[in-house]
C-alpha cells in the first residue's frame, strides 16, 4: 500500500530555467518526510515532480530518474495519469470542487473517472475517507451540503479525505497547514501521523516545529542566490537535522540564523 | 469646546460631528427653486416640458454646487457635483431604453391583442382585405405566425450549429493551445469575425449556398441559419473563453492530482464550474442574432405563409416581417393595417429578447456553484 521513492540525479526546469538541480534522495515507505528550506528554493517544484504534476505547466520538464518502487515514472511511455492515481497530492490552499457537495467531493476521484460504484460502497468509501481525515464527526449530518461551505481547516481535511479516497500509495502535501488555525493544524498533524501507518507521506512546511513534530526524516533545500537552482543540502533523520546538522547552512536555517 | 457649546448643539438635535453641515432640506429647496426659475425662463421663450426638465436639472446641479460651497466647503461641493453628474448620466442612458419600450408597447399592444395575430399568417391577406378592415373599422386581419415560426427555427438552427463549434473552439483555446501560432490565428480571426457587418455574413451564406445547391433553391431557412451562425460563433467563442479562463487552475490541478484525465477534467470540473456563465453568454448571443434583419432578408427571403422546412422554400422572420410591413404595406392606400402589424411584431420581438435575457439571468443563478450552505 505504500511505496518507496528514489530520485536519481533529478533536474527540474521551467522552460530554460533550471529551478532544482541534481537531487538524489530516497524516501522510505510508511514514513513522513519533511521538505524545509527558504522561499523559492524549489520545494514545491520538486514535490510536484513526484506525481508528474510539474509538467502540466507549459514548458516545464524534468531530467533524471524518479523511481517509484523501482519503476521510473519518467520512463518513456509511462502514463502520467496512472502515476497520479498512485501518488495523491494536497495543495497549499484548500480547493474543494465548488460545484460538488461534501459527499461528491470525497467521491470525486472515483466519480470523475467514470467509475460506477453502488450506493452502499460509495457510502462506505465516504465514511472511511472522512473518518481517515478526522472530519466525519463534523460533517456526517451535512454530506449533501456544498463542500465550499466548510471552514478553511475543514475544507483542507476534506481535500485530504478526497485524496485518500482513491487509495494512493504516496501522499504529497504542500504546506497543508499554512492557511489553517492552530487547532486545525493540530488536527491535520495528528492525521499525518496516522496516515503514515498506511502511506508514504511527503510534506513541505515552513514551520520548523511542525517538521520536528510530524516527520521521521527531513530534507533541507537551499538556493545559492536568485536565478540559481535550488539544491538538496542535507537529508537525514529529523532529530539529526534539528539537533546535530552536518552542514553550516542547515544549522543556520533551523536555528533561525539565516541569511 | 465648553460644555456650553455642546448643550447648545444638543438642543438643536445635532452632535459635534455634524456641525457645519448644510440643512437636510437644501436639496429640496434647490430643486424647487430651479424648477421655478426654469419655468420662468422658458415662459419667456415658449414653454415645453422636455426643455423645462433639462433646464431644471442643469440649474439644480449648479445651485447645489454653489450652496454647498457656501454652506460647507469646496471638497464636499465637488463630491456632490460628481455624484449628481454620474446620476444624470445614468438617467440619460436610461431614457432611450425606457422610451423605446414605452413606444413599442403603446403602439404595438393593440395589434398584438387583435384576435388571431399570433396564430395566423399573411396567406390570403390582400390589399383589399386590409382596405376593407380599415374602411369599416373592424379589427385588422393577418398575423405573425409564419414569421414567428421562421425566426424560431432559424435561431434554433443557428444555435445548434454555433454552440458546439464555439464551445469546442474556446475549449481548445483555453485548455489545449499553449499560446502557439495556431491559437493566435484563431483568436485573430474570431476578433475579425466579431466585426463582420451582418449583411456581409448574409451575402456570404447566400453565395456559399448558391455554389452548393445552385441559384434559386439557395434561398431557404438554412442559408439564414448559416448567416446567423457566422455572426454567432465569434460571440460564443469570446464569452465562453472568458468564462473558462476564470475557472481557477487549482481546480484543474486538484482533478489531475486525483488521476483524472484531461478531457474528463474539462467535461466534469471545468465546464460545470463555468456552466452558468457559458449558458447565459449563449443566451445573450441568441438574443443578439434573433433581431438581425439584413442577413436573413438576403438568405431566407420573404414569405406570406408558414414554412416549417428549413431546407426548402423562402421563409419569413420577425425582423424581415417588420421591415416589409413598414416599407411595403399590403394595401398601399391603407397602410395603417400594415403599420399596426409591424409594431405588434416589434413588440413580439422585444418580448422574446427580454424573455431570453431573463432566461440568461435565471440560468446564471440556477447553475452558479453553491457558495455556502452551512
Ligand atoms: N510556474 C513557474 N514558472 C517559472 N518559474 C517558476 C514557476 N514556479 C516557480 N518558479 C521558480 O522556481 C523556483 C522554485 O520555486 P518553488 O515554488 O518551488 O519554491 P518553494 O521552495 O516552494 O518556495 P515557497 O516556500 O515560497 O513556496 C523559484 O525561483 C520560482 O521563481
Ligand atoms: Mg512552495
TrEMBL record, chain A:
<keyword id="KW-1278">Translocase</keyword>
<protein>
    <submittedName>
        <fullName>Phosphate import ATP-binding protein PstB</fullName>
    </submittedName>
</protein>
<keyword id="KW-0067">ATP-binding</keyword>
<dbReference type="InterPro" id="IPR027417">
    <property type="entry name" value="P-loop_NTPase"/>
</dbReference>
<dbReference type="Pfam" id="PF00005">
    <property type="entry name" value="ABC_tran"/>
</dbReference>
<feature type="domain" description="ABC transporter">
    <location>
        <begin position="5"/>
        <end position="248"/>
    </location>
</feature>
<keyword id="KW-0547">Nucleotide-binding</keyword>
<dbReference type="InterPro" id="IPR003593">
    <property type="entry name" value="AAA+_ATPase"/>
</dbReference>
<dbReference type="InterPro" id="IPR003439">
    <property type="entry name" value="ABC_transporter-like_ATP-bd"/>
</dbReference>
<dbReference type="InterPro" id="IPR005670">
    <property type="entry name" value="PstB-like"/>
</dbReference>
<keyword id="KW-0813">Transport</keyword>
<dbReference type="GO" id="GO:0005524">
    <property type="term" value="F:ATP binding"/>
</dbReference>
<dbReference type="InterPro" id="IPR017871">
    <property type="entry name" value="ABC_transporter-like_CS"/>
</dbReference>
From TrEMBL, chain B:
<comment type="similarity">
    <text>Belongs to the binding-protein-dependent transport system permease family. CysTW subfamily.</text>
</comment>
<keyword id="KW-0813">Transport</keyword>
<keyword id="KW-1133">Transmembrane helix</keyword>
<feature type="transmembrane region" description="Helical">
    <location>
        <begin position="186"/>
        <end position="213"/>
    </location>
</feature>
<feature type="transmembrane region" description="Helical">
    <location>
        <begin position="25"/>
        <end position="45"/>
    </location>
</feature>
<feature type="transmembrane region" description="Helical">
    <location>
        <begin position="51"/>
        <end position="71"/>
    </location>
</feature>
<feature type="transmembrane region" description="Helical">
    <location>
        <begin position="342"/>
        <end position="364"/>
    </location>
</feature>
<dbReference type="InterPro" id="IPR000515">
    <property type="entry name" value="MetI-like"/>
</dbReference>
<keyword id="KW-0812">Transmembrane</keyword>
<feature type="transmembrane region" description="Helical">
    <location>
        <begin position="83"/>
        <end position="105"/>
    </location>
</feature>
<dbReference type="InterPro" id="IPR051408">
    <property type="entry name" value="Phosphate_transprt_permease"/>
</dbReference>
<dbReference type="Pfam" id="PF00528">
    <property type="entry name" value="BPD_transp_1"/>
</dbReference>
<feature type="transmembrane region" description="Helical">
    <location>
        <begin position="219"/>
        <end position="237"/>
    </location>
</feature>
<dbReference type="InterPro" id="IPR005672">
    <property type="entry name" value="Phosphate_PstA"/>
</dbReference>
<feature type="transmembrane region" description="Helical">
    <location>
        <begin position="148"/>
        <end position="174"/>
    </location>
</feature>
<keyword id="KW-0592">Phosphate transport</keyword>
<protein>
    <recommendedName>
        <fullName>Phosphate transport system permease protein PstA</fullName>
    </recommendedName>
</protein>
<feature type="transmembrane region" description="Helical">
    <location>
        <begin position="269"/>
        <end position="290"/>
    </location>
</feature>
<feature type="domain" description="ABC transmembrane type-1">
    <location>
        <begin position="148"/>
        <end position="360"/>
    </location>
</feature>
<comment type="function">
    <text>Part of the binding-protein-dependent transport system for phosphate; probably responsible for the translocation of the substrate across the membrane.</text>
</comment>
<keyword id="KW-1003">Cell membrane</keyword>
<dbReference type="InterPro" id="IPR035906">
    <property type="entry name" value="MetI-like_sf"/>
</dbReference>
